[in-house]
Amino acid sequence: MATAIRDTEQPQETVVVEAPHEWDVSRPEIYTEDRWQPIFKEMREKAPINKVTGSSFGDYWNVTTYTPIQHVEALPDIYSSADGITILDDSDFSPEGEEIILPMFIAMDRPQHTDQRRVVAPAFTPAEMTRMADDIRRRTGETLDSLPRGEAFDWVDLVSIELTTGMLAILFDFPWEDRRLLTYWSDWAGDVELSHNPETREERLKILFEMGAYFQNLWDERVKKDEAPDLISRMIHSEAMRDMDQFTYMGNLILLIVGGNDTTRNSMSGFAYGLDKFADERAKLEGNPDLIPNAVQELIRWQTPLAHMRRTATQDHELFGHQISEGDKLLLWYISGNRDETKFERPDDIILDRDKAGRHLAFGYGIHRCVGARLAELQLRILLEEMAERRLRVNVVEEPERVAACFVHGYRKMMVELGEY
Ligand code: HEM
C-alpha cells in the first residue's frame, strides 16, 4: 500500500517561501538537469499547497498534490483560465504592446469556452479516431521502416516530431509535403522567449503572418467545397464558426497545432526514454502486447508532457485551509500530482500493468480537459503496436537534452539505436 503522507483535505498553516528558494519550481534548470522529483516530493510532504514570492514570474501558489489540483479545476468560475494558462502573464506576451494575441479557447472561461470547444470536439470522437486510425498506422509504419539501422539517430527528430507532425497533418488534411511547416510554426508560435528577444521578435511575427496566409488559403479553398471530415472544413462549416472572425479561426488552429505538438511529441520521446530506463517493464511489454493500452496511459502519466497549467483566482477563496486572494496565480503541477504517493504506488517507477493507469492528471481535469486526448492516445498506441509488430526496441545511447522550461516537460534531442528482440 502507498503510505498517506498527509491528508490534504485538512487545513494547514500556509507556508510562504521567498525566491530564491528550492521550492521556486519555475526555474528551468531543475527540468534540464532532471532533478525536479525530490523538490516536489518535499513539497508534497511538508506543504502540498504553498506560496512562492518574488520569483522571476512574480508570486504564485504551488498546488502539488492530486486532490487539490482536481478541486481547483472543478471550480472554473473561481479559478479562471482567462488570464493565461502558463506561469507567464498575458502582458509577457506583449512587452511592448505590439504583439497580436490570438483568442484561444484554452484561455477562456464559460460561456465562450463552451461554444468554441464545441466546434472542434466532434473531430475527436471515437468514430473519428477509427476513421483516422488506418492513415496514422500507415504513416507510422512508413516512418519506422525508414529509420537507420546499426547507427545512432535522434529519436526526437526522426520519430517523435515526424509522427506528431504527420498526425496533425492527417487531422487537418494539411498538404503532406508541407507538413513540417506545422512543427516550424508551432515552435515559433509556442515559444514566448522568441517574442521577448528583440532579435527574434520581428522574425516571429513575420513567420506567424506567413502561417496566417497559408491557413487563409486553405480556408479559401475549402469554403468553396462541400463539408469534409477534416478539422478545417469542420470549422468552416460549423454553426458557431459562421460568425467567427478570422482571428478566432487562426487562434483555434494555432491552439490545436501547439496543443497537439509538444505534448504528443514528448509522450513518444518519454516512451523511448522511460522503457530504456525500466528494462524489466520493457521486457514485460515485449512478452505481452496486450499490455499496450494500459502502457500508453502509464507512459503518459510518467512523462506528463505539460508540467503545469495555471489558474487565476477571480475572488477570495479558502482552498483546503489556505487563504487565496482575488488575482492570485495558482500553478497546478500535474508533474507532481502524477507522482502523488497517496494515489500512485511507487509513483516514480513505470509499472506498465499498473491498476487504473488512466487516472492520471496529464490531460488535466474538468471543462478544459484535453480535447485531443483520444488522438494522442491513438498515436501512441499505434506506435507501440507497430514497434511490437516489427519486434523493435529502442536503446538510448546517451542522456537526452531536455527542454529548458517549467511548462513543456520534454526532450530536445535523444540519440538512440534500434535493436530487435
Ligand atoms: C488542453 C495535455 C495532446 C489539443 C490540454 C490540457 C492539458 C493537455 C494538460 C489542459 C487541461 C486543463 O486546463 O485542464 C495534453 C497532453 C497531450 C495532448 C499531455 C499528449 C499526450 C493534444 C492533442 C491535441 C490537443 C493531440 C489536438 C490536436 C488541446 C486543446 C486543449 C487542450 C485544444 C484545450 C481544451 C480546452 O480548453 O477545453 N491538453 N494534450 N492536445 N489540448 Fe491537449
UniProtKB/TrEMBL annotation:
Gene Ontology molecular-function annotations: heme binding; iron ion binding; monooxygenase activity; oxidoreductase activity, acting on paired donors, with incorporation or reduction of molecular oxygen
InterPro entries recorded: Cyt_P450, Cyt_P450_B, Cyt_P450_CS, Cyt_P450_sf
Keywords: Heme, Iron, Metal-binding, Monooxygenase, Oxidoreductase
Keyword Oxidoreductase in annotation: yes
Pfam families from the UniProt entry: p450 (PF00067)
SUPFAM superfamilies in the record: Cytochrome P450 (SSF48264)
Family: Belongs to the cytochrome P450 family.
Identification of the protein by name: Cytochrome P450
